[in-house]
Design a protein that fits this description.
The protein is α/β, with parallel strands linked by helices and 224 residues long. It folds into 2 domains: 118 residues, Rossmann fold, CATH 3.40.50.2300; 90 residues, Winged helix-like DNA-binding domain superfamily/Winged helix DNA-binding domain (Arc Repressor Mutant, subunit A). The chain is 41% helix and 22% strand. It has 8 helices and 12 strands. The mean pLDDT is 87.
């Protein structure tokens, strides 16, 4: 009897590459969900994979677009697969939320090592975080205050996640923009997101403004 190690979502448009890699993973005990494009891959997220292997060059929406869509709704570990051995491409993927990057051609043993390392790390990562009486659940992507469920948008949750990872620390506006949107955006867009979160979270305010710099997760009085 084969013991399934984990469920892997493989998004790869090259049928031969996809079939070969999927077979190798299955022989190693992984369950594999296969998608030939981003749209199908996003649909398969409903089956809650433990890890995603995502090709950069895809028909229609490219891998970076798919990555952004996944990160708007899930913190599942993601390994980008690409023939683009360029620093700029790697940096873009990692800044947009990818956990690792593998350049083609690659060996099955390398892919397996990267997968197992990420799965080990994800098992030891914090799945829930609290500050004051606000709690974030990184599995269900739910936010609660004093036990009451809050209606937080995916980008709002991502912003809270970044702040919760660095409590009391002042985070630059540019850092928050790249963490949430994958790039710097209109500052008013970030301000609007923060304002909406403050209304949703209610009092006391836990997202403090540090003028000229950015925002910090703290309870002490400050600019808001």
């Amino acid at each position: 009897m084969i013991v399934v190690k984990a469920r892997v979502l493989l998004i790869e448009d090259d049928a031969a590459v996809r079939a070969s890699l999927a077979l190798g993973l299955r022989l190693e005990g992984f369950e594999v969900l296969e998608a030939e494009d981003g749209a199908k891959g996003l649909g398969l997220l409903e089956q809650q994979p433990d890890l995603v292997l995502l090709d950069v060059v895809l028909p229609g929406m490219d891998g970076f677009g798919v990555l952004e869509q996944i990160r708007s709704k899930s913190v599942v570990p993601i390994i980008m697969l690409t023939a683009l051995d360029e620093v700029s491409a790697k940096v873009r993927g990692l800044k947009s939320g990818a956990d690792d990057y593998v350049v083609k051609p690659y060996s099955l043993s390398e892919i397996l090592a990267r997968i197992e390392a990420l799965l080990r790390r994800s098992k030891t990562e914090v799945v829930r975080s609290s500050f004051a009486n606000v709690t974030l659940d990184f599995i269900t992507l739910e936010a609660r205050r004093a036990g009451a469920l809050l209606e937080v948008t995916p980008k709002g949750f991502r912003l809270l996640q970044v702040l919760f990872e660095h409590p009391q620390r002042v985070l630059a506006r540019e850092t928050l923009m790249r963490s949430v949107w994958g790039q710097e955006v209109d500052p008013n867009t970030l301000d609007a997101l923060v304002a909406g979160l403050r209304r949703t979270l209610g009092a006391p305010n836990i997202i403090q403004t540090v003028r000229g710099v950015g925002y910090a997760l703290r309870l002490e009085s400050g600019s808001s």
